[in-house]
Every structure is written in C-alpha cells, then in structure tokens.
Amino acid sequence: MFEIFRIIILLFGTTFAGLWDLKTTDVPDSVIITMIAVGFSLHIAEGFITGSFSMLMNSLFYGGLFLLFALFMYFTGQWGGGDGEILVSVAILLPSLSFLNTSLPFPVIFFLNMIIIGAVYSVIYSFILSFRNKKILRQFKKDFKKDRITQATMAMLVILILLSFYLGSPNVFPLMLFLLFVLVFFYKFAKIVEKGFYVKIKITKLRPGDMIGEDIPKLKIFKRYIKGLTKEEVKRIKRLKRYVLIRSGVRFGPVFFITLILTLLLGNLFFVLF
User: Fold this and answer.
1) Which of 91, 73, 93, 92 is nearest to 83 (CA)?
2) Which of 38, 124, 219, 238 is 20 to 30 A off residue 149, Cα-Cα?
3) Are 27 and 35 in contact (CB under 8 A)?
4) In contact, 89 and 34? CB cutoff 8 Å
5) How far apart are the C-alpha atoms of 261 and 264, rounded to whole Å?
6) Residue 247: which H helix or E strand, with range?
7) Distance CA 79, CA 255 (A)
8) pTM of the model
9) Which pLDDT tens digit goes with each residue over 35-46?
10) What is the mean pLDDT of the chain?
11) Cα–Cα distance between 164 and 158 in angstroms, integer?
12) Is the distance from CB of 42 to CB of 50 less than 8 angstroms?
C-alpha cells in the first residue's frame, strides 16, 4: 500500500514539475518540498507499522548520493537547481521497488535510464530549437565549412567504417566507429546550438525567474549558477545595466517523468537496448 501511494505521488509530482519547467523554465520549490516531506512521512509511518526503518535509511542514503550529484551538476553549470531537486525527491520517495525484477536498486536503475533518456531528449530538444531558429542552422553550416579538423575527423571515420565492412570486421567495431562519428557531429552541433540559448534583451523586459546568461561580478551574480533570478536580483540588475544576456537552456524537467514511466514499465533500459 505504501509503495503504490509513493509511486502515485511521484507520478503526479514529476508530471507537474516537468510541465511547469517547460512553461516557465523553473520548478516550484513547494512541489519538491511536498514530495520529500510526504516521502519521509510515509517511510516513518511504515517503519512504526512494520518495525523496520530500512526504507527510511535507504531513502536517506540514495537521497544523499543524488544530492551530491545534483550539487555537482548545479555548480558546474550543467543543471538548474530544480532538476537536482526532482532527482533527490525520486530517491527519497522510491529508494526501492518490490516488483522490479533486477539485482540493482531502483534509484540506480532510474539514474542509468535517466542518462539514456536525457541524452536522447537533449538531442531532440536541440534539433527542435535549431529548426525554430534558422540562424542556428545557418551558423552551423558556416562554422562546419570552416572547421577543417572536424571535417577531416568525420571523413576518416567514414573511411574506417567502410573499410571495416570491407574487411569483414566484427559488427561491434563499425558500430563503435559510427557512434564516434555521431558523437563528433553532435558535439559540433551542440556548441552552435548552445549559442541559441542566449538572448540579449532590454533590461525593462527582465523578469524574476529569468536565467542570467552573463556574469555580473559587481552584484555577485554568475551564469554558472543555473537558477531563476529573484525579484531583488532583478531590481539590482535594472539599476546597473541597460541590456542583459539571458539564457534558456534545455528544459530538462520532463526527462524525470519520462524516465519514471519507462523504468516502471521496462526496468533497466541498458538491458532492453543493449
């Protein structure tokens, strides 16, 4: 009973957080706090009923691990604070899952699946952004024509792939070369797409919740901290600047709901795909 209730709470919470992130680029703290509070409350209640507090201890352990990862991603500028909060809430609400037929704990499987789904989601999101912003495609073509190193690397990989097929190499070898080819292409593409995430606006259009795209050392505001600006920060910036650079980035929130659904239905995606 407790497990089903935790799953329902997590499904509703990740759905709302993901949709809100798509709409506003932010995740409401109240939703995450509620999810975490409910998770701990259920674990404590279950502990008194069953006489075992193992679920509570596991939630603290995996929640702590995910918190360390979330802080690393936040301070290196890879994730917003809301993304990390959702990840932590997943570990706290579901530190284990009884019907998942695997030797790995649920949080570990969720994390591995999130890597796969997050990568695919980010690529699709980037392509959608590039097709909506024709300047990105033009810039990619322009930069690619000038980048002789990338051109030579990709041409060499194509030759090696064809040569491996001609020589009858094991299938895994051309597959690895192809994945490397794709990686080189998307790395170049991502560097161009990243520029499309930054927009210069008049300071009068700056709003609380916008993410800063430039460092303002005088106000101790830095772009590597991916979080929405507060009302007070917006007021301080407006007193200092006439124009400001803001960023959007990949709205990663929906990944957690998608990962949760696929993990509940399919288990470890590494086993399913590979």
Assistant:
1) 73
2) 124
3) no
4) no
5) 5
6) strand 243-247
7) 12
8) 0.72
9) 999 999 999 998
10) 82
11) 10
12) no
Strand runs (DSSP E) across the chain, as ranges?
198-202, 211-212, 243-247
All residues at 6 or more sequence positions from 240 whose CB lies less than 8 Å from its CB, including other chains: 216, 218, 219
Q: Which amino acid is at 248?
A: S
**Three-class SS of residue 256?**
helix
Q: Which two tokens stand for residue 252?
A: 């990663």
Identify the helix (H) or strand (E) that includes residue 246: strand 243-247
Q: What is the mean pLDDT of residues 161-170?
A: 76
Query: Nearest 5°: phi and psi at 224?
Result: -70, -20
Cα–Cα distance between 223 and 128 in angstroms, integer? 24
3-state secondary structure of 243: strand
Q: What is the chain's length?
A: 274
Contacts of 85 (CB under 8 A, 6+ apart): 27, 29, 32, 70
